[in-house]
Amino acid sequence: MNPMSAIWKPAPTNLELHQGDVHIWLATLKPTATPPSSFRSILSKDELERADRFHRQENRDHWITSRGLLRITLGNYLNSGAADIEFEYSKHGKPSLLASQGESLPLSFNLSHSGPHMLCAVVAGERELGVDIEFKSRNLDYTKLADRFFSKNEVTALKRLSRQQLRDGFYNCWTCKEAFVKAKGNGLSLPLADFDVTFLPDRPAKVNKVEWHPDEAGQWSLTRLGLGSDYAGALAIKGKNRKLKYWRMDDSADGL
Ligand SMILES: CC(C)(COP(=O)(O)OP(=O)(O)OC[C@H]1O[C@@H](n2cnc3c(N)ncnc32)[C@H](O)[C@@H]1OP(=O)(O)O)[C@@H](O)C(=O)NCCC(=O)NCCS
Question: What is the pLDDT of residue 2?
Fold first, then answer.
């Protein structure tokens, strides 16, 4: 096992989600013990229709497995059947539990996929949070992409990195930005160049500055996640002092 992945532990059977805890789950979507077809029975009609719109079988299987694992995981926290969970979607597509009228949500979650991996963060109550996982490609023009997507300060910081640091720096920045965008839930309507994150390897990740409000950056916590040398990941959550716990849904962390 890669030492970076040692943080991911098998979850105890009597798992409890306390206020202030953030549980982060890592799963493999490769058909292992459970074939994707066995998750179909717990997916809703609209989820099955969405799954069947994937042309490639591998993508379809990954999506079915990911939605099935999400339902099972949330069902365990909520003490309810995986098939009974109902989702709703924001206008930008962010899923959440369906809110009963007048009641606040028992938990909030966000998830991300990359290749055969899925990352999912769960927190008690109604909280803004986002996660991102990305495979760290070696064949990209990192500085050209940074010029296109990152803020001026981020581009300047990235260009100061050595060639050896560039790939890690780029993906640290990318996943931190993406996790923040996902936590806010605005999708790509949030201009990526209008906020800065700290992403340098020797500094804790942080939302530094947002253009649209002078106080907002300080309200967020950003954490880089240890996912081995080929993947980068980040969690963004509103508020401070969260206690992070890293669980794996299966043997997936072994392969990272
Ligand atoms: C849709 C988006 C939220 C994430 O897309 P992505 O990186 O392709 O996908 P991820 O695997 O990280 O996340 C997908 C999951 O996020 C969730 N999601 C969907 N819309 C979301 C939104 N508006 N906000 C937060 N989460 C969202 C869903 O659970 C989705 O999984 P599902 O389809 O299985 O339900 C959006 O931010 C996007 O398109 N980003 C483009 C990437 C980009 O240009 N990034 C630049 C970073 S510098």
Answer: 57
131 Cα nearest atom in ligand 1: 12
Q: CATH no. for residue 53?
A: 3.90.470.20
* Residue 17 confidence (pLDDT): 93
Q: Is the separation of the CB atoms in 191 and 245 below 8 Å?
A: no
Strands 21-28 and 87-89: unpaired
Q: Give the number of domains in the chain.
A: 2
Mean pLDDT by 10 residues, the chain (256 residues): 71 88 90 76 96 93 93 94 96 93 89 93 96 95 96 96 94 97 91 93 90 90 93 94 85 48
Cα 119 to ligand 1 centre (Å) = 12
Host domain of residue 182: 129-238
pTM of the model: 0.93
DSSP string for residues in 45-103: HHHHHHHHT-SSHHHHHHHHHHHHHHHHHHHHHHTS-GGG--EEE-TT--EEEPPPTT-
Q: Tell me, in angstroms, the distance from the centre of ligand 1 to residue 37's CA.
A: 24
